[in-house]
Amino acid sequence: TSSAPHVPWKTLLRSSRAPDQMDS
């Protein structure tokens, strides 16, 4: 979850909850 172009972090966080770039 670091090489993503423009993925909806909000959705990823809610599904994967990966605190990688949720603030970015």
From TrEMBL:
<feature type="region of interest" description="Disordered">
    <location>
        <begin position="1"/>
        <end position="24"/>
    </location>
</feature>
<protein>
    <submittedName>
        <fullName>Uncharacterized protein</fullName>
    </submittedName>
</protein>
